[in-house]
Amino acid sequence: MNSQTANRTIRVIGHRNPDTDSICAAIAYSRLKERLDPEHTYRPCRAGMLNRETEFALDRFHVPAPQLCPDVSPQIRDVDYRRRPGVDGEMSLRRAWMTMRDEQLDTLCVVEGDSLKGLITVKDIATANMGTLDARILADARTSYKNIAETLNAQVLVGDIEGKTVKGRIVVGAGSPEQMGKAISKGDIVILANRAEGQLTAIEMDAACIVVCVGSEVSRAICTLAEEKGCIILRTDYDTYAAGQMIPQAAPIRHFMVSEDLLTFTVDSPVEDVSRVMASVRHRYFPVLDRNGAYLGVVSRRNLMNLHKKQLILVDHNEKSQAAEGLDEAEVLEIIDHHRINALVTDGPVYFRNVPVGCTCTIVYQMYQENDVPIDPSTAGLMLSAILSDTLMFRSPTCTPADQSAARALAGLAGVDLEEYADAMFEAGGDVTGKTAEEIFNGDFKVFSSGDVRFGVGQGSYMTEKNRRASEALVRPYLETALNKQRLDYVFYMFTDVRASATELIAAGDGADEVLLRAFGAGAEDGMTVLPGVVSRKKQVIPALVGAIRQLAGER
Question: What is the pLDDT of residue 174?
Answer without folding.
Answer: 76
